[in-house]
Write a structure and sequence with these properties.
Largest sheet of chain A: 3 strands, antiparallel
Number of strands of chain A: 5
Shape of chain A: elongated
Radius of gyration of chain B: 20 Å
Helix content of chain A: 10-25%
Structural class of chain B: mainly alpha
CATH topology of the largest domain in chain A: Alpha-Beta Plaits
Number of helices of chain B: 11
Strand content of chain B: under 5%
Distance between the termini of chain B: 41 Å
Strand order of the largest sheet of chain B: 1-2
CATH architecture of the largest domain in chain A: 2-Layer Sandwich
Strand order of the largest sheet of chain A: 2-3-5
Shape of chain B: globular
CATH class of the largest domain in chain A: Alpha Beta
Order of helices and strands of chain B: HHHEEHHHHHHHH
Number of helices of chain A: 4
Distance between the termini of chain A: 51 Å
Oligomer: heterodimer
Strand content of chain A: 5-15%
Radius of gyration of chain A: 30 Å
Largest sheet of chain B: 2 strands, antiparallel
Number of strands of chain B: 2
Largest interface: A-B, 17 and 16 residues
Chain lengths: 181, 332
């Protein structure tokens, strides 16, 4: 081979592996064997059983860091909201889908732990790109990303989630992947 | 008394009517179940479940399908030929139902033969009637006034001439060993040994030709859903389309029945004689499973590949089989 192509090193030339010519009696014999091999393959698939996940009844488990629908949090002991209405999340949001209107806390009727609280906190989920920057920007871990991804709705205005909806105890409908899965 | 054929013994007319109704009813009860079975099995062959939403385990799926097909408009393209277009799906149904008559479900018991009719020309009847289905296919494809339908119909014609000769020759060996054309006599001749053992080559050739006869993969070129959008069926809708599908499954039953009777010992099996139809059904069921398994496995052959398979391999092999069988039958 190097005689034909002296400029090539021997090991750089790989001879093409060709199968036997199709057709003829030998071809028919091989085709019969290959057919049996194919039948064996499909039968093995039958024995393995279906891999389908029956979606509405079964769901694919997500990873713990999966970024789904947002959640707002309260302090567990005092019941006060963690959000202080600083609007850092809205500033960090690349899709511009968070709207925060802050108000002063009145002593005796506190809403949040800080000086101010979020009077309006809305996330427009039809714009959200689920990047998680709001979660990173938040200095008080008041907003985190949950695991739910079933947010389809019939009306775009229904996709604007208010503070009450985000604060409400989220019904986690999405299974989490087990350790090592 | 029906003087249609020499049935070796005479049956009352009402017995024949009842027999036909029972065979017709049982087969038409099995056909929808076969469609679900096929879809579910093909699903399993592909790591899927198949239909499982309508009724328990999707068993009512054919009801939904038929309901949908019946509620569709019986559309006919403007440039189709009306009478031939309507005749297209009718002829295959006729041929399928007629061919059911000769499948033997059991021996003569209490003066009643457990088969539609035992015609002395037996297997010739199967060929004659079975080929009528292709007239329906050709007429339907040609009269649709669509190029895809015409291509599908032409492929059907080319397919017909490439496998029918080999199919006939494949059965000739069995006919010589059985010494009769009648399916009942052939089953009787298999008391000692099923013909699938001495006639294994014939069995293989017959099954391959049977796949072509029923237009199933790997020989479903007349339909060819991928490149010809269902071929000769392209312009059909509603129950006319449905009857083409129905015929496909009926032909599977007929080919399985003929193969079971000719090669697998028909109704022969252990147990009392009233189990005979069950044994026949069980053998046919195994062959139907083979049809489905093959469909889930093999891709469609090319047009010329089928022709060369039929003429260059199956025909010489079948001829050789006939010659060897003839010599052996004469010698022994």
């Amino acid at each position: 081979m190097s005689g034909e192509f002296p400029y090539l090193k021997d090991d750089s030339v790989v001879e093409v592996q060709r199968g036997p010519e199709p057709g003829g009696v030998g071809g028919a014999y091989r085709a019969f064997g290959e057919t049996l091999r194919g039948l064996k393959t499909t039968m093995a698939r039958l024995i393995e059983g279906p891999l389908t996940i029956q979606y509405p009844e079964e769901k694919t488990p997500v990873y713990p860091r999966f970024r789904g629908r947002h959640k707002l949090h309260k302090f567990e002991d005092t019941g006060l909201e963690k959000c202080v209405g600083c609007s850092l999340c809205a500033a960090a949001c690349p899709a511009d889908c968070i709207r925060v209107v802050a108000a002063e806390n009145i002593p005796g009727d506190r809403v949040s732990a800080g000086e101010r609280y979020a009077a309006v906190y809305e996330i427009n989920l039809s714009r959200c790109i689920f990047c998680g920057y709001c979660e990173i920007a938040c200095p008080f871990d008041a907003i985190t990303m949950g695991h739910d991804y079933e947010m389809a709705d019939y009306d775009r205005s229904d996709l604007i989630f208010t503070k009450e909806m985000l604060l409400a105890e989220p019904i986690e409908r999405t299974p989490l992947k087990a350790e090592g899965e | 008394m029906l003087p249609i054929a020499d049935t070796q013994f005479v049956e009352a007319t009402w017995i024949m009517v009842v027999k036909s109704l029972v065979i017709f009813g049982v087969i038409f009860a099995i056909l929808p179940l076969m469609t679900v079975l096929e879809r579910k099995l093909i699903g399993r062959f592909q790591h899927r479940y198949g239909p499982n939403r309508v009724g328990p385990y999707g068993i009512l799926q054919p009801l939904a399908d038929v309901g949908k097909l019946l509620s569709k408009e019986a559309f006919r393209p403007a440039n189709a030929i009306p009478t031939l277009f309507i005749l297209g799906p009718l002829l295959p149904v006729l041929s399928g139902v007629l061919a059911l008559a000769i499948i033997p479900w059991g021996d003569v018991q209490d003066g009643v033969g457990l088969y539609g009719i035992d015609v002395p020309i037996g297997i010739l009847y199967f060929f004659a009637v079975g080929s009528i289905a292709f007239y329906g296919l050709l007429l339907g494809g040609w009269s649709s006034g669509s190029k895809y339908s015409l291509l599908g119909a032409m492929r059907g014609a080319a397919q017909l001439i490439s496998y029918e000769v080999a199919m006939g020759l494949a059965l000739l060996g069995v006919i010589m060993m059985g010494g009769s054309l009648s399916l009942v006599d052939i089953v009787h001749a298999q008391g000692a040994m099923w013909f699938v053992i001495p006639q294994f080559v014939g069995f293989l050739i017959f099954m391959m030709a049977g796949f072509a006869e029923t237009n199933r993969t790997p020989f479903d070129m007349p339909e060819a859903d991928a490149e010809l959008v269902q071929g000769f069926m392209t312009e059909y809708g509603g129950m006319r389309f449905g009857s083409f599908l129905l015929v496909e499954y009926m032909e599977i039953i007929v080919v399985s029945g003929v193969a079971a009777a000719m090669f697998l010992g028909g109704w022969m099996g252990p147990g009392p004689s009233f189990l005979d139809p069950i044994w026949m059904l069980a053998k046919m069921f195994c062959l139907v499973l083979l049809f489905i398994w093959i469909r889930a496995t093999l891709p469609r052959l090319r047009y010329d590949q089928l022709m060369s398979l039929g003429w260059k391999i199956l025909l010489p092999l079948a001829t050789l089989n006939v010659l060897v069988t003839a010599v052996l039958v004469v010698v022994t």
